[in-house]
Amino acid sequence: MEQLTADIWVQRMDAGGFPTIAAVALTPTRAFVIDTLMRPQDMSPVVEFLAERAGGRRTVVVNTHHHWDHVYGNAAFPGVDLVAQRACPRLIQAHGSTANESVPLQPPEGVPLPTITFGDRLTYHDEPETVHLIHTPGHSEDSLVVFLAGARLLFAGDTLEWPLPNFTQREGKDIWIHTLRQLKQLPVDLIVPSHGPAMGRALIDANERYISTVHEAVAAAKAAGAGRNDLDLPAAAFLGEDVVLDAVYEAAHRGNLVWAWDEA
Ligand SMILES: [Zn+2]
Predict the structure, then answer these.
(1) R_g of the chain computed on alpha carbons
(2) Which residues of the chain have pLDDT under 50?
(3) Which chain residues have CB less than 5 Å from ligand 1, an ion?
(4) How far apart are CA 11 and CA 128, in angstroms?
(5) What's the pLDDT tens digit per position in 78-137?
(6) What phi and psi values does residue 131 have, to the nearest 5 degrees?
(7) What's the gap in Å between 169 CA and the centre of ligand 1?
(8) What residues make up the domain containing 123?
(9) pTM of the prediction?
(10) Residue 161 CA, ligand 1 centroid: distance in Å
């Protein structure tokens, strides 16, 4: 695993072209595991790391939301607390029986459902660290972020993403913008998204600008008669000048245009 700060490590892998991480954050009494990648075996380095480094800490596995690249490795952690937002278990079950062919089959070990859920916020007091799980709907109904107040660090799940966020929740724009404005209130110096490099706070503004300007442009094009599949709105218009997209994120942008057309 790659060490990011004194108490934080990340495990990186490729999920269908998206660079994706799971992370470990050690506090004095707990080892938080944030997301479980695509298969239980993807989490083997994390399981080994915990055996070597976690000592007597209690393992707490957090699912940032129900999507396959964040929860399909849950079976690697039998018997530990699996924590998620209240909507997550239902959405994992629906996700597992979807006809959407972009969603892979569940692993043969199955996907254990979260055992502890919360509504708006769940806080672990672990002096000198305090860990807040905060519901941040927008990317999905059940999205959460993990805010380490002592470290001033935010694990963003897919609520924030670089180089651009993925639209996957119907009627998601307004609630997502609301979520991002709330995130700006948090005293955070480093943001670790599930997809993309660790970054500063500028990621929040960049994602807000992308979400709002894509929706505006698509709504204007739709009002002018553009069809769902003939939106000619290149991503560059919605991103910073220095951002270069690979084929995977070019495709994600085109998918976002269709989601925005449906919502407009
Ligand atoms: Zn994801």
Answers:
(1) 18
(2) none
(3) 69, 158
(4) 25
(5) 999 999 999 999 999 988 777 777 788 899 999 999 999 999 999 999 999 999 999 999
(6) -115, 120
(7) 13
(8) 2-201
(9) 0.96
(10) 9
